[in-house]
UniProtKB/TrEMBL annotation:
Organism: Acidihalobacter yilgarnensis
Organism ancestry: Bacteria, Pseudomonadati, Pseudomonadota, Gammaproteobacteria, Chromatiales
UniProt xrefs under PANTHER family: ANCILLARY SECYEG TRANSLOCON SUBUNIT, UPF0070 PROTEIN YFGM
Listed name of the protein: Ancillary SecYEG translocon subunit
Transmembrane spans: 21-39
InterPro entries: SecYEG/CpoB_TPR (IPR018704), TPR-like_helical_dom_sf (IPR011990), YfgM (IPR026039)
Length: 216
């Protein structure tokens, strides 16, 4: 009888606990399940969108290779407009920017690259876009804008190129001293990383010797 009495007490205690906390437990379980299935649904949606974007980008590349500019440029615009959260939108913008440069339309190239800087889905893509945009800005004689962009902070892997472009910007402004300093930093960084240095060496060789620069 004692055993049954203990069991009755345990059962009554469990009932009291359930009356007190049961609804909160059910609510927490429901919320957890909703969150889980929402996450699964979002992951499925993102995967499906990525697949669509990948397929469209592949079609874009095929059209580009056969020289159908109207088709691939239209597909690029669709990627940017409808699949902006995928990396394929940034890659499409790079292609549009490159074509704009080849056509001599630097304003259009800058617009496409700035879109990636502002909206790119991955940091690496945003940094590549910023470096390419800096090069376009220098070509547009907007060296101050380029210098501001180049000072915004980049991953270590891009520092040699960042410094090389900084040197180009200072040289475009006529400041050979700062250009040399930037090129030398770029050269040191490239050597440390085992990167090619011939172009940087040529840029440094083209500058007057430090003692002969006389300030600029």
């Amino acid at each position: 009888m004692t055993a049954y009495h203990v069991e009755d007490e345990e059962l009554e205690s469990a009932k009291r606990w359930w009356r007190r906390y049961g609804r909160w437990l059910v609510l927490a379980l429901v919320v957890g399940l909703i969150g889980f299935f929402a996450w699964k649904g979002w992951a499925y949606y993102r995967g499906r969108e990525d697949l669509k974007a990948s397929t469209l980008y592949s079609q874009l590349q095929t059209a580009s290779k056969r020289g159908d500019a109207k088709q691939w440029e239209g597909q690029a615009e669709v990627l940017i407009r409808q699949y902006d959260e995928t990396p394929y939108a940034a890659l499409a913008s790079f292609m549009l920017a490159k074509q704009a440069v080849l056509d001599g339309h630097l304003n259009a190239a800058a617009k496409h690259l700035r879109w990636v800087v502002d909206h790119g889905s991955q940091k690496a893509l945003r940094e590549i876009a910023a470096l390419r945009l800096a090069r376009v800005l220098i070509a547009q004689k907007k060296s101050d804008e380029a210098l501001k962009l180049l000072s915004s902070g980049f991953s270590e892997a891009y520092l040699p190129l960042t410094q090389a472009l900084t040197g180009d910007a200072w040289l475009a402004k006529g400041d050979r001293v700062k250009a040399r300093d930037a090129y030398e930093e770029a050269l040191a960084g490239a050597q440390a990383m085992g990167l090619p240095t011939r172009t940087l060496e040529m840029k440094l060789d083209a500058l007057p010797a430090p003692a002969a620069q006389g300030g600029k």
